[in-house]
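Task 17 of the worksheet. Students: predict the tertiary structure of the chain below and write it out as structure tokens. Keep your answer in the requested format; marks are given for formatting as well as content.
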Amino acid sequence: MATITRFEEIRAWKTTRQLTNLIYRLSREGDFARDFGLRDQIRRASVSAMSNIAEGFESQSQAMFVSYLYRAKGSAGEVRSQLYLALDLGYISQAQFNKAYDLTDKTSRQLGRFIAYLKSHPERRVVREHGVAYNVETL
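Model answer:
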């Protein structure tokens, strides 16, 4: 079994990276690009999800990591909510919404499973999700 030693190897981080890139592509077009409030907020939320996974992985304890993962999950939910508004306002198509929604949902599910695993094994410093180990050693 491989040990994850960098946050870039975490599946949820990779999914969130895809989501963040998609959000930036969608929000640079048309009316979405000119709605500075929504555009900036949805971008910040997607970046926050991605960053919290990374920051948590680099934190000093498993408990802190779990806390950051919860924040990332919350930010993914925020993106999902804002996608509805972008759809309602006609900034994105139904197909674009579906693609972004699926990525936010996948991120949330991945994070939820990972959090549940970490909470069920608080004594572990190396954890696994679907055959991949995550190194969460304390400093």
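Marker's comment: The chain has one domain: 3-134. DSSP finds five helices and three strands in the chain.
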